[in-house]
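ok new one. same drill as before - structure tokens go in, u give me an amino acid for every spot. 353 of them this time. try not to just spam alanines like last time pls lmao
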């Protein structure tokens, strides 16, 4: 087994005893940090940053130099997979991600080669290997990918969407075509994540950002089914220890019990679900990750500390909780307010262990 100076994140994911609640933060390498903005300027563009392993490594490590985080997360983007499938990813200022060639026909979906994704993403694997080397065993490295449903929304809509009209119309009017697309994406993502593990990732997260846009039955059919397929294909052990998998469906609190049965080791919660109630619903079947409202980082340090205290108290005593935000940290946050959250977790959580 590879030794880690700090493995409380991996132990908590397996609901094993820890000395305090571990924490990391979605988008912890991001625009709220001035050092990130400087490196992003050096890269010339967001994709320039993603595709440069040295710079991607640098921004991955930046938050660890400031804060007592218990894990690093690979700096990349969920849309690298559809980009590698040939859709032409670009970022417009103020508009977010867009695709030059969104999917608009069954023939285009049929022509997608799921094997292409992994073969085109060597720059991600180089970044994983370099980050793992530079971490020097200090904390574990999280690899990640988007869920098939979430990737499909961008690929069919051509970018972000408010109502998902195109992708839902495809799902409801041509379900066989939609399932073909999701099946290909599940294969691509499974290979992509397995390769991240081979290159050094020690835990994995599947981001199902838009699963919560679906109805109850459609969520199971078009989102959870394919995340379950991915998990079944992943290597679950590397370097002598388990490689835990976290599934995070934003807006998925109503399906918590079903998600807990998908084969993942941990379920991420957004801020709309009380973590104590979630624990009561799933027991010790899975670890729970979350779930402070990211907007609370705009509040005073005293208010942030009170919120951390409330979330820790709601979860209660024992292991199986990874402290995190309920979604990614937003760009305008004061880095000192993140420090207030981290310090509160470090100081207050030992009482629960």
């Amino acid at each position: 087994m590879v030794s880690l100076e700090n493995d409380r994140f991996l132990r908590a994911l397996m609901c094993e005893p820890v000395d305090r609640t571990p924490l990391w933060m979605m988008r912890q390498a991001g625009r709220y940090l001035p050092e990130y903005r400087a490196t992003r300027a050096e890269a010339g563009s967001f994709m320039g940053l993603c595709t440069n392993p040295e710079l991607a490594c640098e921004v991955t490590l930046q938050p660890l130099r400031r804060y007592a985080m218990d894990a690093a997360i690979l700096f990349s983007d969920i849309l690298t997979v559809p980009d590698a499938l040939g859709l032409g990813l670009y970022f417009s200022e103020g508009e977010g991600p867009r695709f030059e060639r969104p999917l608009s026909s069954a023939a285009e979906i049929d022509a997608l080669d799921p094997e292409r994704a992994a073969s085109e993403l060597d720059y991600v694997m180089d970044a994983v290997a370099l980050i793992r080397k530079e971490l020097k065993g200090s904390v574990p490295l999280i690899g990640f990918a988007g869920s098939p449903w979430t990737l499909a929304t961008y690929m069919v809509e051509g970018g972000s969407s408010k109502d998902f009209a195109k992708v839902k119309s495809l799902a409801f009017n041509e379900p066989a075509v939609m399932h073909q697309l999701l099946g290909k994406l599940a294969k691509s993502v499974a290979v992509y994540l397995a390769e991240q593990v081979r290159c050094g990732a020690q835990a994995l997260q599947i981001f199902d950002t838009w699963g919560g846009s679906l109805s109850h039955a459609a969520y199971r059919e078009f989102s959870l089914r394919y995340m379950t397929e991915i998990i079944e294909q992943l290597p679950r052990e590397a370097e002598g220890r388990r490689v835990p998998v976290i599934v995070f469906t934003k807006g998925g609190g109503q399906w918590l019990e079903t998600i807990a049965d998908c084969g993942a080791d941990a379920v991420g919660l957004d801020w709309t679900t009380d973590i104590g109630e979630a624990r009561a619903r799933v027991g010790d079947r899975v670890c729970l990750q979350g779930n402070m409202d990211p907007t609370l980082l705009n509040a005073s340090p005293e208010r942030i500390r009170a919120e951390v205290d409330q979330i820790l108290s709601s979860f209660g005593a024992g292991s199986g909780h990874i402290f995190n935000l309920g979604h990614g940290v937003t760009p305008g946050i004061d880095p000192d307010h993140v420090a207030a959250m981290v310090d509160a977790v470090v100081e207050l959580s030992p009482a629960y262990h």
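The chain has a mean pLDDT of 96. and btw The longest strand covers residues 141-146.
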